[in-house]
Structure formats: structure tokens, C-alpha cells
Amino acid sequence: MSKQMSHLDNIPSTPGKFKMDKSPYIHNRLRWHSSLAKLTFWSFMFLGLILIFFFRSPSSNPLPQDPSRRSLRTYNWGGPAWEKRVRSSARIRSRNGISVLVTGAAGFVGTHVSAALKRRGDGVLGLDNFNDYYDPSLKRARQALLERSGVFIVEGDINDSALLRKLFEVVAFTHVMHLAAQAGVRYAMENPGSYVHSNIAGFVNLLEVCKFANPQPAIVWASSSSVYGLNTKVPFSERDRTDQPASLYAATKKAGEEIAHTYNHIYGLSLTGLRFFTVYGPWGRPDMAYFFFTRDILKGKSISIFEAANHGTVARDFTYIDDIVKGCLAALDTAEKSTGSGGKKKGPAQLRVFNLGNTSPVPVSDLVSILERLLKVNAKRNIMKLPRNGDVQFTHANISLAQRELGYKPSTDLQTGLKKFVRWYLSYYSGGKKAAG
Ligand SMILES: NC(=O)c1ccc[n+]([C@@H]2O[C@H](COP(=O)([O-])OP(=O)(O)OC[C@H]3O[C@@H](n4cnc5c(N)ncnc54)[C@H](O)[C@@H]3O)[C@@H](O)[C@H]2O)c1
């Protein structure tokens, strides 16, 4: 009996539901039922946990869904026809030409740099994930423009190692012009994950592939004036401190500079970082003030102009796109070869950082006055306090280093550059073209 009782002890806690019987057969059945019930119970628990985890994890993720991440999964590439296009676009057509992989080629700066390289006979292959941070139809229009001059843009993400390795297998790029990034200062508060994805993880992934490429390419990449952050010493010089970023965007660009140092130090990659100062011009970025001020002034909408504490002026060192392009090409042309091979450093390699600005900051209210004259429309100005969401009060580049080493000499003033932008804007968005924003 005591033996039987010990069997019963194993039955889960609802003895009233069991009819006690002394038959061993019944006891065995009871034991079997008990095990089955336990097994079923724990299976359901386990299944339930998996379902809870599966359905809850996306919404409990603190980082919002990243459009560029989605794009990583959906692009198609490869095949003989695709490889042929890649090869043809990257073919060098001039003596002493270089072959350049331009990341972010459907972007504002990327389009201009790719077109300029192609014009002088260099081989150019673009790479872009066409994310929807701003109107992708503008990126498609830039793509069509490049297509007409013989530049193919591969659709893909810089986080896609297999794609990058394939590109280096098909073409022995001598240089990489790395411009793909999540740009914009304020959007970082909305979608921080996209900055980590493109500016940090994507950059590391690109460098990982470059370090194993044979030969290793020289890399020129876009940092930003935003690394100067809360620095108050002007004009900003490359030697100034950059440890007080005012936005996550700035922090990821600063991280990029440190990552560049590491890959140069360990693997012998030749790396040049360019700190661009507020680039503007035709085919520009709709999220930038000069662009959306133009749109809103034309629509009769009021525009917000920021001022700092005590009516302090907010000013930017606006730099015209053609000047930036010259700086980029000069950086590529003066870049020394990387020294590593097989993923190993074979000697010291070049590591540089340059400011590419205009050395003439202009108050944002003056920018608006120029636009009013060019558009022949008065702006509805709404003066507001500069919010603490990433913007800094002013930027001003000291460009003497770039002048000395790259022969960089910006030559377009804001009035002249905005005139060219407005002309482009009016022709692009008129004649049945979609309205901006
Ligand atoms: N325009 C400026 O005033 C300015 C100032 C400082 C620094 N920069 C830097 O210069 C570079 C170019 O800027 P822009 O103004 O041309 O910006 P942009 O947004 O027009 O161009 C960036 C391009 O990169 C692509 N991209 C983003 N993430 C990608 C990814 N993970 N994989 C593949 N493609 C990706 C985008 O689709 C876009 O076409 C960026 O690195 C930016 O941070 C620009």
C-alpha cells in the first residue's frame, strides 16, 4: 500500500479527480496519465513562452524599425548581366585613372562626386540602399542622371558583407569614396538605430571587407563638422577638441573617426576623413534648411528661424557642392596606397582628417533674405529659440590644412550658390514634377 501511495504522491495536486483503485494496472495507467499531463502542461508552457517572445519582441525593442535594415533583406544582386554592368561602370577610361566604389551614390554629395569622377575618365561604381529617410524619388532621379553618364548604382546595403565581397571580387577598386550614412541631426531622436546601423555597423562592415581586399583600396570618407559639437573656439581647426558631440549623429561621426584610426593602425588601411560643413546646392537634401525654407516660402508657409540665448545669431559655414566635390577628388588623388594585405598590416599607412568648409559663416536670417530676393517672395518668419535637440549655434571652418595638403580653395559664395540651387529647384519641381515634401 505504501508503495501504491508513493505512486499517488506523483499525481499532481488534484487527487479528488482521480478514482482511487488498488489495481496495479490502474496505477500504471494513472502514472502514465500523470506523465502525459505533465508533458502536455510543460509543452504548452514552452510553446506559450515562445509565442510571447515572438510577438512581443519587436514592440518591446527600444529602437524603432529601421527602413535601411529592411532594405538589407530585399535587394537582388548577382548574375552575369549584373556583373557585366558592374565591370563596365567601374572600367577606367583615362590614363592614370582610378576605379572608385562610391557608397551613398544616390545621395546628394555621392551623385555629384560620382558624376565628376566619371567626367574625368575614372571608373565609378555606385552603391546605395535607397532608403526613405527623405523622398526616394529624388534619389531615383539622381540615379537616372548618373545612369545617363554611364554610372551604375548597385542597390544594396553597406552592411551586406556578401555583396561587398562580391563587388571586390568583380572589380579591384583602387579607392572607396564612402558617403553612405544616416545624415541629419534631429532625426536621431526619432530613429537612433538607423545611425548605429549605417554610420557605425555599416562603416565597420565596409572596413572589414576592405581590409581583406587584394589590393586593399585607399578609403576617403565623410565625417562631419558636427564632431566639433559644443566647442566654442572658432574657427574650428582639426586640432580642436571633438569630445563634446551635441547629437547622436555627431557621436556616430566621431566614432567613425576613432574606428578609422583603429583600422589604419591594425590593418594598414589608408584612411582620409573629410569634415564637411553644411553642403548645399542643386540636387540637395530636402531635410536641410535652405531646401525646406525654399519650399515653404514658395508655399506661403511660415518658416522657423532659430536664435540662440540673448538673441544670439545662429550661423552656418555654408559650402557649395562644387567646392566639396573638388575637395573630395583632391583627397582621392592625394591618398596614398593602403599597406596591408591578406588582412594584415605590412607597414605604416596614411591617416588624415580635413575640414572642408567655406570659412565664411552666414547668419541663417541672411540665408532667408537671399532666398526671398531670389524667389521674389517674402518669407513669413517665425523667430524661435534654438531647441536643444542636436543643433549647434554656429559652425566656422579653418581650412588651412586642406588648402596646404589638398590645394582646396572654395570659390562659391552663398549668393552665387543659392542662385544655382533655386534655378535647379524651380526647374525640377515645375512642369508637372511632384511638389517637394
Ligand atoms: N550634406 C551635408 O551638409 C553634410 C555635412 C556633413 C557631413 N555629411 C556627410 O556626407 C555624406 C553624404 O551626405 P549627403 O548630404 O549626400 O546625404 P544623403 O542622405 O543625400 O546621402 C547618403 C546616401 O547614403 C545612402 N545610405 C544610407 N545608409 C545606407 C546604407 N546602410 N547602405 C547603403 N546606402 C546607404 C542613402 O540612401 C543616401 O542616398 C554623409 O556621410 C553625411 O553624413 C553631409
TrEMBL record:
Which part of the chain is the NAD-dependent epimerase/dehydratase domain? 100-337
Spell out the protein name for this chain: UDP-glucuronate 4-epimerase
**Similarity comment:** Belongs to the NAD(P)-dependent epimerase/dehydratase family.
Q: Which InterPro entries match?
A: Epimerase_deHydtase (IPR001509), NAD(P)-bd_dom_sf (IPR036291)
The coiled-coil regions, if any, are none
Can you state the subunit structure given in the record?
Answer: Homodimer.
Task: State the membrane topology.
Answer: Multi-pass membrane protein
Q: Which UniProt keywords apply?
A: Carbohydrate metabolism, Golgi apparatus, Isomerase, Membrane, NAD, Transmembrane, Transmembrane helix
**Pfam families (UniProt xref):** Epimerase (PF01370)
Q: What is its main location?
A: Golgi
